[in-house]
UniProtKB/TrEMBL annotation:
Keywords: Sigma factor, Transcription, Transcription regulation. Belongs to the sigma-70 factor family. ECF subfamily. This is RNA polymerase sigma-70 factor (ECF subfamily). InterPro entries: RNA_pol_sigma-70-like, RNA_pol_sigma-70_dom, RNA_pol_sigma70_r2, RNA_pol_sigma70_r4_t2, RNA_pol_sigma_r2, RNA_pol_sigma_r3/r4-like, WH-like_DNA-bd_sf. Residues 22-88 form the RNA polymerase sigma-70 region domain. The keyword Transferase does not apply. PANTHER family: RNA POLYMERASE ECF-TYPE SIGMA FACTO, RNA POLYMERASE SIGMA-70 FACTOR ECF SUBFAMILY. Residues 117-168 form the RNA polymerase sigma factor 70 region 4 type domain. GO terms for molecular function: DNA binding; sigma factor activity. GO terms for biological process: DNA-templated transcription initiation.
Length: 176
């Protein structure tokens, strides 16, 4: 059993310090996923808060057949999707592109604008395409992990990702 598994077991038994450790360790990842799915920092915060409440309630039933982080990705994804159902499906993604490495300040600006455009294009994808693309390409999860999180087979996931990539490329071509 890994450290997360031990902490999950302790938290399920009522150890609040173990649960706090899990929260501090995994909230950044959960927020990042929720933000990329919802496109809204406020909605991402709500989704993560609701996700942690769900985790706290469900921890005693967690069987540790999968890694804890895989389960948390699923809970965060479901929380973000629930936030999307509460509003219109199309939203702008206001996430900052961050500092992009380049050789000159001008190159950094161009690179940052390109990253920002890709993130906005991802936000315009249908949810069924956006979620697997975020988990696979932006979070770097394996096909098997994403398939498990979304509760689909790997072949179905590969088909979704192919459609998402084609749609993303189409949007990027339209903008250029």
């Amino acid at each position: 059993m890994d450290d997360d598994g031990r902490l999950a077991g302790d938290a399920a038994a009522g150890d609040h310090a173990a649960f706090d450790t899990l929260v501090h360790r995994h909230t950044p990842m959960m927020f990042r996923v929720a933000l990329r799915i919802t496109g809204s920092p406020a909605e991402a915060e709500d989704a993560v808060q609701e996700a942690w409440l769900s985790v706290w309630r469900a921890l005693p039933a967690f069987r540790q057949e999968a890694r804890l982080s895989t389960w948390l990705y699923r809970v965060a994804t479901n929380g973000a999707l629930a936030q999307l159902r509460l509003r219109r499906p199309t939203v702008p993604l206001d996430e900052a592109a961050g500092q992009v490495a380049g050789t000159t300040p001008e190159r950094q600006v161009v690179d940052a604008e390109q990253v920002d455009e890709v993130l906005r294009a991802i936000a315009r994808l249908e949810v069924s395409q956006r979620v697997p693309l975020v988990l696979r390409e932006l979070e770097g999860l394996s096909y098997e992990e994403v398939a498990e999180i979304l509760e689909v087979g790997v072949p179905a996931l590969r088909a979704r990702l192919r459609r998402a990539r084609v749609a993303l490329l189409g949007q990027l071509r339209e903008r250029s």
